[in-house]
Amino acid sequence: MLRRLIFLPPPPEAAAQAPLAGSPTITTATGRALVLGADTAPATMVFLHGNAEDARELIGLIPFLRAGFRVVIPEYPGYGIAADLPRPTERSVYTAVEEILNHMAPVTGPLVIVGHSLGSAVATEMAVRGHGTHLVLTAPFTSVNGIARTVFRFTPAWISRDRFDTLGKAHRVTQPALLIRGAQDEMLPQSMTDAVAQRIPNSQTASVAGRGHNDLWSPPSPVTELITRFVFG
Prior knowledge:
This protein is an alpha/beta fold.
């Protein structure tokens, strides 16, 4: 039951006419990804979205093309352009995203793994597996069970098979990391961002005034400048 709360893919037809719907794609046996920008861009961003999102709707990523990034947006199994694949699990999401990373065009500049909310846990796992030169987590959380205990204080820790335990693996991240949270995030407490940041050896944090959980990336967003400065200096 909890798996159906963790993974809430929107109806795939809802984004059929979305701004990014006609973008080039990467296709593997386990996943799909949209590709924005040229292979020759100075840096590449791999963006892992949150729950109940569709890669084709993420217009907040377009400003990064002007900032010098190629943007690759893996889609989770069962979501959007990957709706034909079986329903997602934690393991299948990791497999799909890693296959996309392995099938991407060669990267010569920085490779920035960015994850929002649910995607922050996926991004952390990819960093632990050695992918990327930089890690950015926006609206991060400690684990699914940590959220369950925070929201439903009586929920036992063993209830979820999909743990997405960022806190438990954060100490294994070797890349420089930036953690960003909307100051008005109504879903995840500041304590979760702080706990994850304290475990990552080389991390820094930023707070975006006037933004919450779901509008943190809505353009024009200060996140664009924060990440660009983090990567390029």
